[in-house]
Design brief:
- The protein is mainly beta.
- The chain has a single domain, classed as monomeric porin ompg (Porin).
- About 15% of the residues lie in helices and about 55% in strands.
- The strands form four sheets. It has a 20-stranded antiparallel β-sheet that branches. The protein has a two-stranded antiparallel sheet with strand order 3-4. Strands 11-12 form a two-stranded antiparallel sheet.
- Helix 1 crosses helix 4.
- The protein starts with a helix and ends in a 5-residue tail after the last helix.
- The relative contact order is 0.17.
């Protein structure tokens, strides 16, 4: 692979890495929020949690806004770093960069994930021993998996390889909304149970399931030909796409995004790809100062029946090269040549029919020890389930409520197999207005000179505004005080 083509390929990957950051990998929720005092949105992680206030009303659109980006391979300083000798930022592709060291960062299978979530409507209220909650929110999820061999190929091409295994590549992009109704019930002085039912509506989805993709040399070696064997499935619900077919074989497609605003509004407000979700949770007061809790969130599915697309591909392709001038600054000719060559050799079969996809479920297990009414400590385990694989996380927290108008949570988490994650949550209350700002990933170590976070493989940020009315805890304490003549 020539130097210019190599730079084009690896630059494309690094662009994906950085462009996914502001869009905001997994999880729209901050672990820090689970134990945070005075934050009604904490019942989003456990439907059994009852806010201290008697009524809360979220400010429309900003009641809860969550951004999340993560990956399991690269820290920010692996992608771009400062070189003091030339007084400039460089990437691993720079002549002074270390490609071998860069490749060591990748695991056999790697992932990039980002999520976004916002509540458009959000409110809840207490009725005796029960607490009811309702919200309408929009979620987007992006999950991309890729193999170390893919990065080896992009950087080193076929250098020293007998076979190039790209089977780890795949992913999913999904946009949907949810209407949720929850209830929490104090069963007795020790046990609280909660549940939430969610009506889901899918707006768009695109998923690639790679079963087998690998390249091997032709009979005359890599210099003569590459034999690419490929088997994968594509599923999606893609608005505004038009397929052109010969029988079941797809010849081409066209994505028409030049639509009126009313058509996009109809897409977002319509309820055609329906699904259901369930959340369950419990709190149990084991002893006076210790409460344990558990919840399962996002058990459910979406049935994609509108604009559904199911495509399969199982072919072998012999690549003998294309004509391309390395002096040509326009690389579009190179890529269009590759795509045309692939199109001639691969058959994409349309099997479009309705299909279902599951939500990314989460399991929370927590314990909280109360040192006093103002100070407590928490331990939280979270496990996400994606495509049958488990992704565990652990968080320790110290939570304080020193005065009525302020609360804080300080956390330490093990995320993405990294041990450098400090989180901080701050809550402010002025009259009925409540504001919270939370992040699970404040960087601890920076590079010398220009500060670039070291070890940080992502970030989580969450904030929101709510109106809080009444305080059940303070009212109860007043009722418990003896009357004095």
């Amino acid at each position: 692979m020539t130097l210019k083509i190599k730079k084009v390929c690896i630059t494309g990957f690094l662009s994906i890495f950085f462009l996914n950051i502001p869009v905001i990998l997994f999880a729209q929720d901050n672990m820090t929020s689970y134990f945070m005092y005075g934050m009604p949105q904490s019942n989003f992680l456990n439907p059994a949690t009852q806010p201290e206030c008697n009524v809360y009303i979220g400010i429309p659109g900003i009641s809860q806004l969550s951004l999340d980006f993560s990956n399991n391979a690269l820290s920010f300083n692996d992608v771009i770093f400062y070189d003091a000798e030339i007084d400039s930022f460089i990437t691993p592709l720079h002549p002074r960069g270390d490609e071998e060291e860069f490749l060591k960062r990748f695991k056999k299978i790697n992932y990039i994930r980002n999520n976004f979530f916002t509540k458009i409507l959000d409110f809840g209220f207490r009725s005796k021993e029960m607490y009811f909650s309702f919200h309408y929110g929009i979620k987007s999820e992006t999950n991309i998996n890729y193999s170390k061999d893919l990065m080896q190929f992009l950087i080193k091409a076929n250098e020293g390889a007998d076979i190039i295994d790209l089977s780890g590549f795949g992913g999913r992009v999904r946009l949907y909304d949810e209407i949720a109704l929850g209830i929490s019930i104090n069963m007795d002085s020790q046990l609280t149970l909660g549940g939430r039912l969610k009506l889901l509506s899918g707006k768009a989805e695109f998923e690639v399931k790679n079963q087998d993709i690998y390249a091997e040399p032709g009979s005359g070696g890599w210099t003569e030909a590459w034999i690419l064997n490929s088997t994968f499935d594509i599923k999606g619900s893609i608005p505004f796409i038009e397929l052109y077919k010969t029988g079941e074989e797809i010849d081409s497609f066209e994505l028409d995004t030049d639509r009126e605003f009313s058509e996009y509004n109809s897409l977002l407000s319509g309820r055609k790809n329906l699904g259901f979700g369930l959340d369950f949770g419990a709190h149990y007061k084991a002893i006076d100062n210790l409460t344990i809790s558990a919840s399962i969130v996002d058990l459910g599915f979406i049935r994609w029946s509108n604009n559904s697309l199911v495509v399969s591909q199982d072919s072998q392709y012999e690549f003998r090269g294309i004509e391309f001038s390395i002096d040509d600054s326009d690389t579009s000719g190179f890529f269009s040549g590759v795509l045309d060559s692939i199109k001639e050799s691969f058959e994409f079969i349309d099997k479009s029919e309705p299909y279902s996809s599951f939500l990314t479920s989460k399991i929370y297990l927590g314990a909280r020890y109360y040192l006093s009414d103002k100070v407590n400590f928490g331990l939280l385990s979270k496990t996400e389930i994606y495509r049958g694989k488990f992704y565990p996380q652990i968080t320790l927290s110290a939570n304080v409520f020193p005065i009525k108008v302020f609360s804080a949570s300080l956390t330490y988490s093990i995320l993405n197999r990294e041990f450098y994650n400090i989180g901080l949550g701050l809550g402010f209350k002025g009259g009925p207005i409540n504001l919270f700002i939370i992040s699970d990933t404040y960087p601890l170590v920076f590079t010398k000179g220009t500060p670039i976070p070291v070890h940080l493989k992502g970030f989580r940020f969450q904030f929101g505004f709510s109106i809080l009315i009444g305080n059940n805890k303070e009212k109860k304490l007043m009722q418990d005080e003896p009357l004095i003549d």
